Amino acid sequence: MPSRHIQAVVFDLDDTLYRERDYVRSGLMAVGEVLRQRTGRRADFAGWMWRQFRAGRRTRIFDAAGARFGLALSRRDIADLVAVYRTHRPAIRPCRNVAALLRRLGRRFKLGLLSDGFLPAQQLKLDGLDLGLFFDAIVFTEQIARSAWKPSPRGFDAMRKRLGVPHAACCYVADNPAKDFVAPNALGWLTVCWRRSGQVHAGSPAPSGGAPKMVIRSGPELIRRLRIGRRTARREGDGCAGFR
After folding, report:
1. pTM for this one?
2. Which residues, 6 or more positions from 116, have their beta carbon under 8 angstroms from its beta carbon?
3. Residues 118 and 166 in one domain
4. Do residues 153 and 68 share a domain?
5. So what's the pLDDT on residue 5?
6. Mind listing the pLDDT tens digit for each residue in 166-182?
7. What distances in angstroms separate CA 14 from CA 131, 144, 174, 193, one per listed residue?
8. Is there a domain that residue 240 lies in?
């Protein structure tokens, strides 16, 4: 698709504008502190859960912590910990030069943010990143319905309407090939997978019709692919300066 047809660039949030694992670590630290307060123990709950996550053991992690530390957590206890995780104020920051990239793109394109995930977690992430003012439209698919999470097309259609541009004039930049690109591909969007080191879902296989049309590894590369500001793009660095 010729870049002159693109009128809007829409971004995913998690592992696209910031590192998702930084959010996970922040949430586990919040949960760990709650466990320390409730049990009166000085065990490193957060550190143990973080090591489990890094080792790829990422499901039922609170149940696993309960078993590891002999906490006898009830279903209600687990639900409370999940709520702590989803409602904590995350210690996260944008990947390096993301704000400069959004500012640059915003001079020529309408900008959108389209993200899945539980609320209020997604809004708290955006608040913590301080990027909201860059976007002309923000769609959290949870606000539409749980069934509107990707790969549903409903969020993309809502975004197109809010931006006031046709589907064929939209570009979606995201990270997860398992779900992010199925709907926008079917709707005629330009789809771009942004590859960064340490992404949680980078190895997920794409389903039929779900492969991105383009893969990039930096903000300057995205600018070059959209054919704007080539000299500026070469001067800018890229990377992800998250919490490690």
Report:
1. 0.89
2. 122, 140, 141, 142, 149, 150, 155, 179
3. yes
4. no
5. 87
6. 999 999 999 999 999 99
7. 13, 19, 8, 13
8. no
